[in-house]
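Ligand-bound model needed. zinc ion.
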Amino acid sequence: MSSLLIRRTLVEGKEQDILIQGNRIAKIAPHIAVEGFTQEIDGHDLIAVPGMANTHTHAAMTLFRGYGDDLPLFTWLNDYIWPVEAHMTEEDVYWGVRLACLEMARTGTTCFLDMYSFPLATAQAIEDSGMRGVVSYTLFDRGEEKRAREDRENCYRYLKEFERFSQRVVYSIGPHAIYTVSGKQLRFCKDFAEENGVVVHLHLSETQKEVDDALKEYGKRPALYLEDLGALSKHFVLAHSLYLSDEELQVIAASGAACVHNPASNMKLASGAGFRFEDMKRLGIPVGIGTDGCSSSNNLDMFIAMRMAALLGKVSFKDPTVFSAKEVYSAATSAGYQILGIDGGRLEEGALADLCLLRSKTPIMTPCHNLVSNLVYSADGSVVDTTIVDGKVIMLHGCIEGEEEVLEKTAERAYNLIGKYGIR
Ligand SMILES: [Zn+2]
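Prediction:
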């Protein structure tokens, strides 16, 4: 079994050694003695923290960073994004995800939940980058039975195909939204998840329009419609979950489903504010934080996502005591991992070794009266020095192997795609 020893790193303010054996944290203690060959990292002046989980993104959309900003949602999708996406190839998606993984590793994220086309390309990119990811096969039938049948078959096909990847790459299914996936199909997703123990990744109640349309079409608000279909369970991860009534929160809590807050996207697309974090906590609904894709967030830095969540929450409810740094931080780490059913996001013996070392000697981390406060309100991804995923070092003191190639190849693909099919 490979072992990795981090010497003299700061763990909750105290200097400790961290021993990683295989893909788990074996021991956290001062002066650990190990025999045999061990890779060592000097952790002096570095702060050890658990890696973060970005629980809602579309990684390949890094290709669209900075393309088509400041537009109404409909114009943006119809005129800018969809015409380009129609021409995207597996290779494009692969390199888009490689860039996303690079950015996430650099900014303290070790695990993410993704939804996009070409799931095998996404999976391969995660595999090759050393990251951990949960990849959703996207279901999108728009009520056409032929397409719905194909999607159902694909759910099983990809379940098999994913067996070739390592345990870092986890399969899941992603019915896009209640307005693009039929009720029958949503019910199928619930059954499929139960049968195969996978996450169901769904956009829910992202906009007021979605709620109004659901009321018009089904006579019910989105979460109540799902409940009515018998299509809500603990396997569901509900991205955005922005417009939820008291009754909907009750139904979600009873089902065991989780909600994910995407503050940057909700602000940039002017979808709205008022994510009901406090009520969700009170009802025991697990909550994660996500960046959403790079078209609606522009970066994948979870430090920034945490800060936006905290600040937007406070101003939305006109209450500085809500969305505390501690709560937001736990949503981005341990709760995020838990939502994805992965035993990490904690700096604890026995947990998966997904962790980062942060630079302590930098202005935005000095002084450090309260580490979590600095992480949420002051820091950004630039404080990350070293990133370890599944016990393997993927960034060491700011260096990631193969970074230049990824930057070059991805930029080339992005310019090519937008140049040919985009609006400039
Ligand atoms: Zn999304």
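Residues 5 and 89 are 41 Å apart (CA to CA).
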